Amino acid sequence: MRIPLSLFLSLCSTAIAQSTTIPLNSKATFLHTNNDSGALASPAVSLASLGAAPGQWLLIEQLGEFDNGPQADVFHSLLGIFSADATLLAASNLNRVPGSIPAGAAATTANTFSGSQPTNIADDFWISHSVGKHDALVRVPAGAAFLFVAPHDSLYNDNSDPDGDYAMRISIVAAPAYPGTAEDIELSSGIDAAPTTSPALKSAAPGSQLTVVVDDRYTTTTGATSFLFLQPQLSPFVAPGALADTWFGANALLLVGPTALPADGISFTTSVPAGLSGLQLVFQGGAIYPLARNGLYITTEAHRITLL
Ligand SMILES: [Ca+2]
Ligand SMILES: [Ca+2]
Ligand SMILES: [Ca+2]
Q1: Which CATH architecture group holds 17-173?
Q2: What is the whole-number distance in angstroms between the Cα of residue 19 and the centre of ligand 3?
Q3: Are 17-173 and 186-307 equal in CATH topology?
Q4: What digits encode the pLDDT tens for the residues 269-304?
Q5: CA 204, CA 71: separation in Å to the nearest integer?
């Protein structure tokens, strides 16, 4: 049977993520500004208008580049903050989002260019970092109905986007198989290949080279006390750990750590032995981090490798 292409595409788009691309103004911010009269107020993005609700997972990608003023149209940067309502207070306030709800990788923002006034607030998160990754996977927190975004900058009125490509794409995606805290740390795994964050489920034949890497996404947790756990088990069912957002139990092996997270992450490599067919290797990384949303630790998504 032949299916018309248009029907095929529409079936695909139903099955795959629902995405919305929103153009951004690089002068718009939700951070406090000072002596920055050309700065604009970030518009509130309604989550309902995207079809998103608390508990769902969003992939937010920063597209294009902007010019931060003194340099060129080459900058990647985006911060986000969830809110219960659409209220954005005047730029003279430090906390302009009174309905803010914490989520994601906590962002520490720079003081204003003029007057060096603090801008840092607790609840905003990295979507795109100038020298890190340019996307974020976040779970919409309970009570959130709006999202504000802004580039991270200390002076906004001199920003521009000559080719008009600075934007964000928000996709509603399936929950990870074994989610972590979704902050500034991620796990990649590879079998005879460069490690990748996705898929989280892989298989490895005897004699293959298995590599697992734990690294930060936005460079903010370099130096944090980090670790990599391995839980070997026979069942493909992975039970949640006793600690929130963990996937290992008391019998897990501590493969790496505790150790200060190097700039290029911690890693573990092994040659897969023969005779262990069916064994499941569940890997998860994490770190002790003062800005963790749970107040203590951050964790990566866990990966499960089936030995063949
Ligand atoms: Ca641009
Ligand atoms: Ca600027
Ligand atoms: Ca902050």
Answers
A1: Sandwich (2.60)
A2: 27
A3: no
A4: 999 999 999 999 999 999 999 999 999 999 999 999
A5: 47
